[in-house]
Amino acid sequence: MPLSLSFFVEPESVSVVARGLLGSVSTSEGASQEQLRLIQSLLDYLWNRPDLKIHELSPINSFELALAVKDESTRIVFHNLQMMLELCRHPQTEEQLFLGEIYAESLGMTSDALQVTRDYLHSGVRKAAEDANRIFNKFLPLR
User: Of 21, 35, 76, 126, which is most buried with the most CB atoms under 10 A?
Assistant: First the structure.
């Protein structure tokens, strides 16, 4: 599936897309502040909906999103933004990656960009764990 560079969402779909994006980053730790700021910026500046406040929206799960968003172009926009939001979580978590995969699967989204992003993020989580173990094991004997 080709990636679209447009982030246009029909006005009647903005709220549900924002709620889906919020759901896609709502791990057990919650969304990161960077992720929340990005979604609010999309609402305020890209979609001209500053009346919608991210802290007042209820997240929706991937199945609710798939039922609400039937339009293919809106699904592609959501997919692209959801991958961008995943890249905003620091440190990255396996839970976040799994949640992103569930949303992509529910919307029927597959792309080379998705695979590259998944590979990059998964290797980043492994690399971070390896680095933490290496540093911890280096200083453990000193304690």
Answer: 21
